[in-house]
Amino acid sequence: MSTEDRPPAPRSLAEALRARGDASLGALLRSRPDLITPVPTDLTQLATRAGTRASVVRALERLDRFALQTAEALAVAADPAAYGELLGLMAGDDADPAVVAALPHALDGLREQALVWGDDDRLRLVRTARELLAPSPQHPSPTGLGPTVQEATAGMSPGRIQEIVTAAGLASTHDSVSAVTALAGLFTDRTRMAALLAGAPADSLDVLERLVWGPPYGQVTADPAPRLRWLLDRGLLLPTAPGTVVLPREVALHLRRGLAHRTPEPVPPAVETAAVHRPQVVDSAAAGQAYTALATVEELLKDWDEGGPAVLRAGGLSVRDLKRTAVALDVPEPVAAFWVELAYAAGLIASDGEADERYAATPAYDEWRELPAAERWSRLVTPWLAATRTAGLVGGRDAKDRTLSALGPGLDRSAAPEVRHRVLALLAGLPEGAAPAAGSVLARLRWERPLRGDRREDDLRGRLAEWALSEAEQLGVTGRGALSAQGRALLGAPAAPAPGPEAEPSGPGDKLPVHHHHRPAPLTALSPAEQAVASAAAARLLAPLLPEPLDHVLLQADLTAVAPGPLQRPLADMLGVLADVESKGGATVYRFTPGSVRRALDAGQAASDLHAFLAAHSRTPVPQPLAYLIDDVARRHGHLRVGAASAYVRCDDDAVLSEILADKRAAGLGLRRLAPTVLAAQAGPAGLLEGLRSMGFAPAAESAEGDVLITRALAHRTPPRTAPEPVPDGPPVPDDTLLAAALRAVRAGDLASTTPRKPGTAPAANGELPRTGAAETLATMQAAVLTGEALWIGYVNAEGAASQRVIAPIRVEGGFVTAYDHTADEVRTYPLHRITGVAELADEAG
């Protein structure tokens, strides 16, 4: 393309955006969705918003390390800078081929993000980004570079500048500006600079070596040592304040062989493989963990079935209740916090909202329990992927030094879903069955998002990644550290890459130093509909790997029953009432006790029902001791009757009542005989029942009609509750419909604001709305109807929002104008009293 054919270079970011196509502008708005919240009126406003500090900081935080290094290099380059200068700062004098190859892509990314604009011969970093990244005494640059010679000598006397120029071997000049220019020219000339340093004392060169990679500032006394004096005399160190000197940027770049960064990182660090397992082993291990996850959540909710722990006044679980939960689940407290938060995220537990507020299962829990195991698993992992509540923070402190509690406020971290998804995506990029080294995953994440972690005291993204790896293993998304088939399906990931020859294990679990330098295709977060499809696919893959529920147990003579696997729901529920769980593991051991048998009888079961149940579900004969236990408890069960007097005890055998009255342990019940077969008590029915049972009796409660009460505890449920919504990390990425509408509105607004107007129509200056009187507005509209010309109007809607529009009037009547609105690309009707003014467009614009 000849110079005449080349479009003029943009003079501002707005002009650079105006020259972009819709695809390029759409990519910008997708990557920086805050720019269309709300939709800007035109491209000038879009450019202004793209240069605001909050938006620029957010965009910089989302750059990978090499793109950020490129932006940092532009911040210490000339403004504007040629591509060759940027390449020199990034690749150095040796022109690192990896940097040379990667730099165009990084620069294109910065342009797409609207952080850099201009052609390759005039590259400009957005002013706000330059202010954030350029070095200053208050905010040192990540490059470790200091100010330029011109900046460092700004307050120096002309005489002192001439002395430095002369000592450096340059001819004296008549003014300071030319002297500083000559000195900077010397420092940037590799040959002359090498000759100057060749004559430097060795200890002076040592001083430069200590400052070259930053910080560039040093301290000197009022009478500097000879090694420092030699450097100060020649401007290789320049004073910035009393007792402080700085290494000029040009000198540092010469000593660094042109590099702005000590270690440019154009290639992301490899995700290393720590171990390789057979895929079947990984999937089986993950399925085992998935089953354990389901059992753990069920056990948690069963423990809270009749009403769980109280809700703290500030919200959440108390430390004591979390400890109790951890003991009940037989896990450490941080793991217990994870399961509690997971059940909350899945909508299975919530607060009941009562006056004495407690946590309890929701109605959704009952529906969840009836689903097949694989679907129950998908109902847990899907909300886990999107959850912003972070269980790993439980026990820590918030900004006000308050303890963060499980289920309490302050646990949301908007970066959690993105980090979780990215960690799993990195695992999906490894060969099937490959488990990564955790350190290499963290290093990769730090390369992909360096600024956010580096500028905080604690590396939150690193901790989120560690928690994601641990939680994925507990949930069965991974097995033995490798992504399982169901985990891959959950992400909507394609098939795993085939392992190379070097990745073939000699045995399952062999550790191999396999490196993966390829950059896996990035997996984007799925839409809710896509995630539902992916979750269903994951459940289908998991289902065959989960153990089938059993319909039997093995009864033993020591009053125990062994369940060699998961039990079918009715069997598990009934056995949970009739016996106590003694131990868990690959097989669950239940123990029958007088208390557990009485619990089943209290629930309305008869002894014959219990005998029939055990005979039907045991693969071994019912042991005689167990049959005797059931009959013995049943014989005594209900022999005594307790009702409300405040409470009473009645029994057909008056000798038993006499025995109770004579027992010293009955003193606290306040018993007295009302009749030979009836005792009255001051204690209530519940206390009387408990007291008699502690004395070794087996009383039954009865109603006012004399019927035995079935005392099975009813499950306590909250009212219907919705699961907590994740806290978004800034505005959501616009969908295609919103993006197309926003682009059309911005383009139309830009047309209205940039279309040339005829001279003499007196539109307001500075892009404000045109102002004309009502009569002139009406006359201009009527004339435009006859001529078919387009007009530029200012319009204020019913909410008071002002805008500029280009319209072609069709009809004017009844105080309204009907016109084709180029801004909205449709015919609209506007009240004339809301039009602030009109201006005719220039002929070439029409």
Automatic annotation (TrEMBL):
Keyword entries, A-Z: ATP-binding, Helicase, Hydrolase, Nucleotide-binding
Stored PROSITE patterns: WYL
Start and end residues of each stretch annotated as Disordered: 134-153, 492-519, 750-769
Segments forming domain WYL: 776-838
Molecular functions per Gene Ontology: helicase activity
Pfam families attached to this UniProt entry: Helicase_C_3, WYL
InterPro entries: WYL_dom, XPB/Ssl2_N
Domain annotation Helicase XPB/Ssl2 N-terminal: ranges: 553-675
Record has rRNA processing as a keyword: no
Name this polypeptide is given: Helicase C-terminal domain-containing protein
Organism: Streptomyces massasporeus
Lineage: Bacteria, Bacillati, Actinomycetota, Actinomycetes, Kitasatosporales
